[in-house]
Amino acid sequence: MASTTGRAEASPPVDWEDARSRAYAAGREGALPAVERPLAETDGHTLAEPLTPRTDLPAFPTSSVDGWAVRGAGPWRVVGRVLAGTAPGPLTEDGTTVEIATGAMVPVGTSAVLRVEESRRTSRGLVDGVPRPAPEWRHPGEEASAGEELLPAGTPVDPALIGLAASCGHDTLRVRRQPRAALLVFGDELLTAGPPGDGRVRDALGPAVPAWLHRYGCQVAPADVVGPVADTLAAHVDALRTALTHADLVCTTGGTMHGPVDHLHPALAELGAEYVVNTVAVRPGFPMLLARLVGTDGRIRYVAGLPGNPQSAIVALVSLVAPLLAGLIGRPLPVLPHSTLAEPIAGRGDHTHLALVRLDRVAGTAHPVRHVGSAMLRGLAGADGFAVIRPGTSGVAGDRVPVVPLPLLPGERTW
After folding, report:
1. Could you tell me which of 8, 9, 12 has the C-alpha nearest to residue 286?
2. Which Pfam families match (predicted)?
């Protein structure tokens, strides 16, 4: 790997909102290429170009009801039947009708469609009744015109969009390639199985972070989760270099400070990384980072350094990784929804405070949860997102504050 600026250099903590913007801009710089995918394989991807219909929708006049397509005044003589999926001939004589099914093409020459439940048969076998004044069929282009932009590039693909694309006549979609991510777990003190004890703690991030990344639209193969990586500089450099050969994004856990076994900063310097963000003025999660490296192929890769404390690591994910990935896959930087605080939340001085909250979506309120220490995950498991308490302020009950939602599955709509 080669860097555009050489060795990584430390910098003062970045304001949380600025850090989020920098991460998004870095992702836009390295936006992933567009690929063509069959509709069934696009859920969770992102449109690389606007979705437009190949024909008018509907493409032909379509009956909205079961009944009779009639011409002229009644009663009408039955001259045929039209089912969905067939192209009928025209009605050429007044006083004639064809039986028609919902969704069937309305014959040329039809003056009205009479609902079957509002019709009757005469003693002579004719059809009689009074059609409603409003047409009982959908007109061509009523939903959309051919070539009209229905959804812009950058829209997440979900089942509703896939169905719409199929109705528009598409068999494939051009979408952004999904990022491939890897996770390196740092820390000799970590256990990967069984209960903690004897000075060692259970690794909670190795199993959890890939699932969070999946919800942000990343592909994370089991083989791309590595660790614990030995607490040596050589091991850190080797693990990073290997992961960067195939991953667009490498997340690491732990080692973001400057202690005796914190080797991430020296390893990034060894690889010639450039910091996008080096520490953020946010609590919890302060010692987080995002770095950029340019490969010999000219493609940009990224390293996101997540703190070792579990809740702090998730704060780093929502603060840096989420906006980075939005840029990579061509989505807009998400606009944060707002909610009303149901209880006070303390500020953190000059730092932004991201406080775990549970949302009452009916009342539109945010309720702080308990067990929210940076090393705890109990509060996170019952939360919906983080309330944003800006630097130099405290949250007062009744305040409207931004909320960073926790991610759902790829393509799912939030709020």
Report:
1. 12
2. MoCF_biosynth, MoeA_C, MoeA_N
